[in-house]
Amino acid sequence: MKDRTILTGVWHGAVSTPSQTNGKINMESLNRITFNSKVMGGKPCIRGMRITVGTLVGLVSAGRSFGEILEAYPLLEYEDIEQALSYAAWRSEEIELSLHEVFAEV
Q: Among 20, 22, 77, 92, which residue's beta carbon has the most beta carbons within 10 A?
């Protein structure tokens, strides 16, 4: 398996959250997204709960409204769903390059 590194991109999206500045999202401002190898296998979760970003993105993509999701998951807050969507959009803009490609230009 090749060594890989992640170069982050910039997302220009429609979800309005406090984590955006001029349409840019940075991981540091997504304070509701947590990672713990002992919770859901280290997948990105919401505030340490066993609710993954992928679960919320899947529900939204299936047509569920924020209200329906909040009713089904009473511990969630509106901002949790916003940040899950922002994280997913930010993550989808990352570019994977092999370390060889990165250092070939140096």
A: 20
Separation of alpha carbons 2 and 4, rounded Å: 6
* Count of other CB atoms within 10 angstroms of residue 90: 24
Structurally, the chain folds into a number of domains equal to 1
89: containing domain: 4-104
Question: How far are the Cα atoms of 6, 24, 40, 86, 106 from residue 16, in angstroms, in the given order?
Answer: 25, 11, 27, 9, 38
The CB-side HSE value for 70 (13 A sphere, CA atoms) comes to 9
Can you tell me the distance from the alpha carbon of 56 to that of 43, in angstroms, rounded to the nearest whole number?
Answer: 13
Backbone angles phi, psi at 52, to 5 degrees: -90, 160
Q: Note the pLDDT tens digit of each residue in 48-100.
A: 999 999 999 999 999 999 999 999 999 999 999 999 999 999 888 766 666 67
CATH number for 64: 1.10.10.10
